[in-house]
Amino acid sequence: MSETVAIVGAGLIGRAWAIAFARAGWSVRLWDADAAVPARTLATIEPLLADMAHHGLLDGQDVPAVMARIAPATDLGEALAGVAWVQENAPERVEVKRELWARMDPLAPREAILASSTSAIVPSRFTEHLEGRERCVVTHPLNPPYLIPAVEVVPAPWTSKASMDRAAGVMRAIGQSPIMMTRELDGFVMNRMQGALLEEAFRLVADGLCTAEEIDIGLREGLALRWSFMGPFETIDLNAPGGVRDYVTRYQGIYETLFPSMQRRVDWAGPVLEKVEKERRGRVAEDALAERQNWRDRRLMALAGHKRRAAKDIGD
Amino acid sequence: MSETVAIVGAGLIGRAWAIAFARAGWSVRLWDADAAVPARTLATIEPLLADMAHHGLLDGQDVPAVMARIAPATDLGEALAGVAWVQENAPERVEVKRELWARMDPLAPREAILASSTSAIVPSRFTEHLEGRERCVVTHPLNPPYLIPAVEVVPAPWTSKASMDRAAGVMRAIGQSPIMMTRELDGFVMNRMQGALLEEAFRLVADGLCTAEEIDIGLREGLALRWSFMGPFETIDLNAPGGVRDYVTRYQGIYETLFPSMQRRVDWAGPVLEKVEKERRGRVAEDALAERQNWRDRRLMALAGHKRRAAKDIGD
């Protein structure tokens, strides 16, 4: 029997979750504080599914079959009745989430997982006073999760192990790759990794060593190629004959030398932003950003298709 | 008329440069301090070229045409006579490079560029006393450059602007994407970016927040997907409706909060290495590392093929 998920907050992230769950066979209810949003969102899903089918990303299903599983809901109680999962995508403000979660908790079945898509708020801050707080987690995706599998699953101090296990199982079942954090921490895992890299990127451009475009070259024509199918640990594990221990023995000294020069933070909104913005707007004008976002989504979809084929043909 | 390059040091990196130059129509001379190496290396190039042809990476040329451009050289003076470029790939020891460059400088035509593949030694340390030091640079690739276009071009304080321009032109002509550093700096650009990210990765694993495999998931199923065709600056530029300035206004606060917790360095060779190594060897046994490196190279080749097609079909 198919399970049901309630998507609470039906904007871009809610839409992406709806697609991810529906593709995996779940019944999806779309709810939003603005009652006009779910129907509007629903209308934008069909062309996206058609693109996904084209790239082999619907697991052999046709578009109407997946569409038929998604329905708007007008009442929050109705949306949450009998569900196995609630995915909340409300604005990133603690007071909004606290109020919404206080409403959600008694409306959802006691065994349902309540999950937030927040990227910036640790779960303890909006789940502490809930009856059912032991089944509350953050599941933070990069957007859109139907193309980007990684999802951080973050417990509050009172989240039960059983809930974490259930959350991991559901995420895997719908095709995501969960990162099971052992405790909450600001930035979770992915924004911390991104932040560490961006700090160095802004510093190099601020210091005039290279351009922002050249940083992008260093990743998109360099480092990120291997990372995009191996990640950084497997990359270094394969970069010395004896594996990661050999790599650390050979090269840690070099990285240690660089560390002290990474202790200085440059203000991203300072003079470096003028440089970066001038470069970026020279490449993509502000009124062409939306079109470029479409390009990004098409490239991401083609890459996801490539990765599926490569995993099958060459191995994972 | 075709130009000639001398590859000085014909191991793995020298071989990769030989392929990159030969594919672009250059005549390639392979020289090594060990006279047996060039012929041995040459024998391993043909099957690689066949794989590249299969993935559409030889620009429509056939394997024999590219192979015919590569020849071993036994004498360094002979190897360097009349060349336009010298690519040095000697061991990463300053004294080795100093001695070798002192030999190379008088043997190469005065207008030839002398380039080192070093990843760890700034060019001032082995070019200072050379007659022709104004034409000396580092061109540091990620290996192999025939699949990974990014190359850091690093000047010594005395490298002329004309030499840097010429180096950029040659790199572009053979299909690389140069990162033109304005001055030398330890770690150059790419290892600094990699180091910043690895420091955070080792810290998260050392602190027990997630596993090394989950860090890899966060990149290979997450952050690195977008980075692999956009880089980090374009990624954030497209991640807020108003572009990079909007992104910085909205999100810098989050990253600023994380920064203080990134000031502590964990010893990569300490207890965290036991954890990482145990995980990695559980996934790939030490005696299977070479086979896994072959898998990596095949995946990288397939990815390079995908990127060429996607750039054509969807745009770059």
Topology of this structure?
The structure is a homodimer of 316-residue chains.
Chain A lengths: L3 E5 L3 H12 L3 E5 L5 H18 L8 H5 L2 E3 L3 H5 L4 E4 L5 H14 L5 E4 L7 H4 L8 E6 L8 E6 L5 H13 L3 E4 L9 H17 L5 H26 L6 H15 L12 H13 L5 H25 L3
Parallel strand pairs in A: 1-2, 1-4, 2-3, 4-5, 5-6, 7-8
Antiparallel strand pairs in A: 6-7
**Poorly predicted regions of chain A:** none
CATH architecture of the largest domain in chain A: 3-Layer(aba) Sandwich
Query: How much helicity do the residues of chain A have?
Result: 40-55%
Distance between the termini of chain A: 31 Å
Computed structural class of chain A: alpha/beta
Task: Output the keywords.
8-stranded mixed sheet, phosphoprotein (chains A, B), alpha/beta, 3-OHacyl-CoA_DH_NAD-bd (chains A, B), N-(1-d-carboxylethyl)-l-norvaline Dehydrogenase, domain 2, Rossmann fold, globular, 53% helix, L-gulonate 3-dehydrogenase (chains A, B), 12% strand
Any overview of this molecule?
Chains A, B: This is L-gulonate 3-dehydrogenase. Chains A, B: Its EC number is 1.1.1.45. Chains A, B: The record marks 140 as: Important for catalytic activity. Chains A, B: It is found in: Cytoplasm. 2 copies of one chain form a homodimer. Chain A is α/β, with parallel strands linked by helices. Chain A has 2 domains: 4-180, NAD(P)-binding Rossmann-like Domain (Rossmann fold), CATH 3.40.50; 190-283, Orthogonal Bundle (N-(1-d-carboxylethyl)-l-norvaline Dehydrogenase, domain 2). Chain A has 12 helices and 8 strands. Chain A has helices spanning 12-23, 37-54, 63-67, 76-80, 94-107, 124-127, 161-173, 190-206, 212-237, 244-258, 271-283, 289-313; strands spanning 4-8, 27-31, 70-72, 85-88, 113-116, 136-141, 150-155, 177-180. In chain A, strands 3-2-1-4-5-6-7-8 form an 8-stranded mixed sheet. In chain A, helix 8 crosses helix 11 (271-283). The longest helix of chain A is centred in the last third of the chain and has 26 residues, at 212-237. The relative contact order of chain A is 0.09. At the A-B interface, strand 8, helix 8, helix 9, helix 10 and helix 11 of A face strand 8, helix 8, helix 9, helix 10 and helix 11 of B.
